[in-house]
Design goal:
The complex is a heterodimer of chains A (308) and B (249). Chain A is α/β, with parallel strands linked by helices and 308 residues long. Chain A folds into two domains: 2-165, Rossmann fold, CATH 3.40.50.620; 190-307, 3-Layer(aba) Sandwich (Rossmann fold), CATH 3.40.50. Chain A has eight helices and 16 strands. Chain A has helices spanning 16-28, 42-49, 70-80, 93-105, 209-219, 227-231, 262-265, 297-307; strands spanning 2-6, 32-38, 54-61, 84-90, 111-114, 116-119, 122-127, 132-138, 143-147, 163-165, 175-182, 195-199, 222-225, 252-256, 273-278, 291-294. In chain A, the strands form three sheets. Chain A has a seven-stranded parallel β-sheet with strand order 5-9-4-1-2-3-10, sandwiched between helices. Chain A has a five-stranded parallel β-sheet with strand order 13-12-14-15-16. A three-stranded antiparallel β-sheet of chain A has the order 6-7-8. In chain A, helix 3 (70-80) packs across helix 4 and helix 5 runs parallel beside helix 8. Chain A is globular and about 60 Å long. In chain A, 60% of the residues are buried. Chain B has a single domain (2-246), classed as HUPs (Rossmann fold), CATH 3.40.50.620. Chain B contains six helices and 13 strands. A nine-stranded mixed β-sheet of chain B has the order 9-8-7-10-6-1-4-5-11, with helices on both faces. In chain B, helix 3 (94-108) packs across helix 4 (127-135). The chains are: A alpha/beta (308), B alpha/beta (249). Chains A and B meet through helix 3, helix 4, strand 5, strand 7 and strand 8 of A and helix 3, helix 4, strand 7, strand 8 and strand 9 of B. Bound molecules: flavin-adenine dinucleotide. Flavin-adenine dinucleotide sits between chains A (200-202, 226-229, 240-245, 257-259, 261, 263-264, 267, 278-280, 283, 296-298) and B (13, 37, 120).
Chain lengths: 308, 249
Amino acid sequence: MAILILGEHDNSHLNEATSRTLSAALEIGNDVDILIAGEDCAAVAGAAAKLNGVRKVLLCQSPLYAHMQAENMAALLSPLMADYETFVTAATANGKNIAPRLAALLDIQQISEITTVLARDTFERPIYAGNAIQNVRSAQEKNVITIRTTAFAPAEAGADAPVEILAVGEDTGLARFVGEELSQSDRPELSSAKIVISGGRGMGSAANFDMLERIADKLGAAVGASRAAVDAGYVSNEYQVGQTGKMVAPELYIAVGISGAIQHLAGMKESRIIVAINKDEDAPIFQIADYGLVADLFTVLPELEELL
Amino acid sequence: MKLLVPVKRVIDYKVNIRVASDGSGVELANVKMSMNPFDEIAVEEAIRLREAGLASEIIAVSIGPAQAGETIRTALAMGADRGILVKCEGNVEPLGVAKILQKIVAAEAPGLVILGKQAIDDDCNQTGQMLAGLLGWAQGTFASKLELEDGALKLTREVDGGLQTLFLTLPAVITTDLRLNEPRYASLPNIMKAKRKPVDEKTPQDYGVDTTARLEVLETKQPEARKAGIIVENTAELVERLKNEAGVI
Ligand SMILES: Cc1cc2nc3c(=O)[nH]c(=O)nc-3n(C[C@H](O)[C@H](O)[C@H](O)COP(=O)(O)OP(=O)(O)OC[C@H]3O[C@@H](n4cnc5c(N)ncnc54)[C@H](O)[C@@H]3O)c2cc1C
């Protein structure tokens, strides 16, 4: 039976997380539909319809879904699931918020953040901040699954699947959107950037993060941070990389003034090349770094900016 | 208003876990166990609401082995008023936990259930959302700020792009993120006092909930280890190697 993907978007652009989710879904089965629910988001549905392997796109437009709040999203999805065997979405903030609510409505035990599809009903997922990997098999008739997007390549575009309009679902009236403070940046998105440069407590201040930002701009990189840097107020929460922040797996990850706690490593150790810049030669980050530089970051960063 | 705070006993976050060589799971013998850090934040938030006069009673619930009673005692020592220990052997999946909590909510009628956003053992990030779904309540996940005024709840949450603010109808389910508060340590007198606070013991059967696992764990294995690379002498060598050896810049 068929698979339903919930598309991730901001009403104007389809997030790359969705094409990665599609790659995972196509390993599970063939008949894959994508639901785009939002407000004035027809263009997003158009983009989803171009992804290779999609059977059709369902488009549901209403102010009810403008911010993809879980209460109304789950109310829309739950009856739709009568026609699907599997629900899949990316483990983004939205996916993590919506999928378990849907799973409970359907009496399904969700499988969170899979990294490998071993069979239609069997998956690999990390536990304990990635320090152990579980193979889990589901004997349930239907499954609700979230995908760790860094583990799957994005699907290619080129197709032209049909877009079907879907009737608006129930308004639960449970939650009302007030506002949001989203970071404005021209840099690539942290979760999908090819290069990430992250700062930790060693950066010492919010102002010092400017040094990382200037290097990021030279490299076309995204800027990330450790929890300690976020807690200290150097940067805001959306920069946090780690077990309980964002998962990243870029071609190059540069950790500056970060000690390498397991909770941080959980979010970046799948990066292809890891660079650590730290003045403490015993910092655990060096145990997983391809290139380590034992030095004061306040000397290294200006040199790096100069040399790039 | 009553507050219900579920707390989970997990391996302490500072412990480097070991995977059993036979693939059966993670070694638990002689390992330091603690309250899931996000649940400490939940307990702290509940106490702050009570201290602000916005809540009357805090009930800490744990679902797990007999030793989860210690986790409840920790919550009581921090300031929760009483506990409910739902004893069960083996792993209870988030859906089973949510179903037991649903029954406890029906019996206790709390105005808010405050949970951690994820347990640092299974990293599922499901229970709060599932409970909200089962109850048909609003859910405020990944909360970094909570303001209760005149029966309305204004909640700020951490989302991928930054922060989002919502008004939720009450009763509601909240899950905590790291920046919500900094949990207090229990003082020695409060640890002593906690020993006399009441803890009810129950079983899943008392609530008529079947906790049979839906997912079968076939194997638990060690992740592929990453090897340490080389230490470079200076910034120039680093840049040279990233360009010419790794080819990433
Ligand atoms: C429930 C829970 C969830 C968590 N989730 C996350 C998460 O998702 N992500 C995360 O990152 N952490 C997370 N943590 C926190 C984690 O345990 C660490 O506390 C945190 O990662 C440490 O950040 P840090 O490396 O920046 O700070 P520190 O550990 O303090 O390290 C700072 C480093 O900077 C170096 N340094 C200082 N000054 C200089 C200088 N001038 N030049 C060069 N080097 C310098 C020091 O040598 C040190 O190694 C979590 C913790 C808990 C309990």
